[in-house]
Design goal:
The radius of gyration is 17 Å and the shape is rod-shaped. The protein contains 2 helices and no strands. About 90% of the residues lie in helices and about 0% in strands. The mean pLDDT is about 90.
């Protein structure tokens, strides 16, 4: 997922350099979705660890 995010950022920069607004818009949307998915995955992992610790204590 990290590599895809970097690819999206690279496409965003290339779109800005060659002045293609459609590529810039699509790249920005792609990067935003990738970042949201990364944050969501981190939140799920955190909650899984908390739940596992809580179940060990029970």
């Amino acid at each position: 997922m990290f590599i895809m995010t970097l690819t999206g950022i690279a496409a965003l920069i290339i779109g800005l350099l060659i002045n293609w607004p459609v590529l810039v818009a699509l790249s920005a949307i792609f990067v935003a979705v990738q970042l949201m998915m990364t944050i969501a995955r981190a939140a799920v992992d955190h909650n899984d660890r908390r739940l596992a610790e809580r179940l060990k204590g029970s």
